[in-house]
Amino acid sequence: MREIINLHVGQCGNNIGKQFWEVVSKEHGITPMGTYTGNDERQVTRLPVFYVESSTGRYVPRATFIDLEPRMTDVLQATEYGNLFHPNSFLTGRIGAANNWAKGYYTEGAVFAPVVLDYIRKLTEMCNNVEGFKMFHSLGGGTGSGLGSLLIKQLSEEYPDLHYMSYSIYPSPVVSDVVVEPYNALLTQQKLIENVNQVICLDNAALYDLCVRILQIPMPTYENLNQLISYITTGVTASLRFPGQLNSGLKKMGVSMVPFPIMHFFAPVFAPLLSKPSWDYAKLTTQDLTKEVFYPEHVMCAIDPSVGKYITVNLVLRGDICSKDVDLELLKIQNDHRFSFVDWIPNNIKTTLVDVPHFGFFRSVTSLISSTEIRSVFKRIQEEFEVMHKKQVFVHWYTQEGMDPEVFEQVFSVNEDTIGVYAQYAEDIDEDGD
Ligand SMILES: Nc1nc2c(ncn2[C@@H]2O[C@H](COP(=O)(O)OP(=O)(O)OP(=O)(O)O)[C@@H](O)[C@H]2O)c(=O)[nH]1
Ligand SMILES: [Mg+2]
C-alpha cells in the first residue's frame, strides 16, 4: 500500500481541501475528532494511504494547509473538522501574494517555501512507501498559483521518482473580477505542463454554469462550486481508498491515461447531477449514469468533448453497479458516431468498480476524460492573456518582484505548443473523414 501526501495551497486549495476531507472522513467512518466509529472492514483496509494513525489511535490526514496569509486557514481550523488535522499542518505567512504569481513564486513564496518543504519532508519520512503528492490549488490568485508552482517544481527536483497529480481550478471572469488572473493562470500552466504527471482541470466557468443550468442555483457561491469539485476529488480517489475489483494506484492511473507526457490534462465529469426537486423523479440506473458522463453539459471544464476526439477515458463506478450494464453501455457509446475516439489506442476506456457508495449517493460515476478539446480551456486563457500582454498592462507588478518580462513570452509559447499538440490529434478527424 503506497501513501499519498495532500498539499492544499492558497484560499481555493484550502477551501476545496476542507470539503475533500469532510467527505472522505464520512465515507471512512472517521469523526471530526479523528476517531474511527464505522463497522465496515472496507473502510479501514486502505486508510494508511490517506491517514496517519497516531499512537493514541487517532486518524490524522496526510495533509498540509498552506497559505501566505492566515485568514483561510484560521477559518478552516475553526470549523467542525478543524481538529481533525494536525495543528502543525497549518503553515501560514502573514501578508498573502495579492493576486500576483510573481510574489508567490519569486519573493513572498520563495522565502516561505523552505518552511513548507521541511514539513512535507517530515510527512514523507512518516510514510513506508510514499507514492506521490496531490496538490489542490487555483490558477488565478498569487499563492495557489505562484507558491503552488514553486513547491511542485522543488518537490519534483527533490523526489523525481514520485508521482504528481493536481486538482487545478482555472479562473473565469464570471466568478472573479481580478483582472490579472489570465497572467497568473498561464504562468502556472507552464509549471503544470513541466512538473505534474496528471492535471485534473476544474474550470470555474463550467462549474458556475453547471450550478445555474443543471442544479438550478441562480446565484452560485464558492460553497456550491466546491461541492461539485468534491464529487470529483473524492470520486477519483475512491479506488485508492477502498479495496476494489480493479484497484489502481496513482501512477497506474496515469499509465493508462497519458499516451504522451504532455497529454496529461483531464476534464472531469460526475453523474448523477440533479437539482433538488428532480431527485425523487429521476431514474438512476447503471446504464443511465454511464451514459450521462458522456453528456457534454456535465463536464466540469468548459469544453465539449464530443466535438473533438476522446483520447482516453477513466470511469470510477461506485455503489450498486452492474458491470454487465456498464460494458453494454460503453459498447453503445463506442459505436455511436456522435462520439469519436482516437483509433490508435485500443481499449481506451478504463473502468474501476468500487462497491462502497459515494457519500450521499447509492450509485454514482466519476470520470476523467482526456480529450483533444481540453485545448479550448487553454485557448480561452491565452486569448485573455494576449489582450493585456499586447499593451503590456500590469506587467510592472511582476517585474517589480524580480520576474524577467521575457517569462511572459515563454509561457505564452509553451501554452501555444501544448494547444498545437492537442490540435494535431484532433485534426485526424478530418484526415480520416470520420
Ligand atoms: N471554485 C473555487 N474557486 C475559488 C475559491 N476561492 C477562490 N477561487 C478562485 O481562485 C482564484 C483566486 O485564487 P485564490 O485561491 O483566492 O488565491 P490565493 O491562492 O489564496 O492567492 P492570493 O490570495 O493572491 O495570495 C479566482 O479565480 C477565484 O475565483 C473557492 O473556494 N472555490
Ligand atoms: Mg489568498
Structure description:
By secondary structure, the chain is of the alpha/beta class. It folds into 3 domains: 3-258, Tubulin/FtsZ, GTPase domain (Rossmann fold); 267-371, Tubulin/FtsZ, C-terminal domain (60s Ribosomal Protein L30, Chain: A, 2-Layer Sandwich); 376-432, Helix hairpin bin (Helix Hairpins). Helices cover 44% and strands 18% of the residues. It has helices spanning 10-27, 41-44, 71-77, 101-105, 108-125, 143-158, 181-195, 204-213, 222-241, 250-257, 286-292, 323-335, 375-390, 395-399, 406-432; strands at 3-9, 51-53, 59-61, 63-67, 90-92, 130-138, 163-170, 198-203, 265-271, 310-319, 349-354, 363-371. The strands form 2 sheets. Strands 5-4-1-6-7-8-9-12-10-11 form a 10-stranded mixed β-sheet, sandwiched between helices. A two-stranded antiparallel sheet has the order 2-3. Strand 7, helix 7 (181-195) and strand 8 form a beta-alpha-beta unit. Helix 1 crosses helix 6 (143-158) and helix 5 crosses helix 6 (143-158). It is globular. The termini are far apart. The structure holds guanosine-5'-triphosphate and magnesium ion (MG). Residues 10-11, 69, 96, 141, 143 line the site of magnesium ion. Guanosine-5'-triphosphate binds next to helix 1, helix 6 and helix 9.
